[in-house]
Amino acid sequence: MEIETTLNICNFFSTDCKGIIRTITKNTNVPVTKKEIILVGMKLCQTHSNKFIVNKTRNLEYNKSCSHLKHDIYKTQSKNANIKSKKLNLKKVLKRLIEVLELDEFAEICSICKKKTNKNPEYLQTEEYKAPIPKKKAN
Fold it and tell me: pTM of this prediction?
């Protein structure tokens, strides 16, 4: 009679290993940059889980940038140009602006670029440009 034992050891077998052992499942949000080394079924200690998954995911999110071609120009024209913001408030490009800005559907732009695009004569004169629909005010 054979008894199958599963070892609860981190796959990296390092002296740095500490903390709870977690199994990587298909639902684990592994960053794209680490998909080659972090595979489903692997076991990671808290240290390696933080290093390869948690911290990488946070860094990728933090280091996103605006996809607008004129972002740097618009940023210097902004009142708060000298103030370094901690994180850009990025939103998916509106469908009506995708063709005008020649971006893909997954691109993200900041609120400054969205506002400036709607006021820029260069974009307003193109055939692809569609004006924003004004919000109705409730009485």
Answer: 0.53
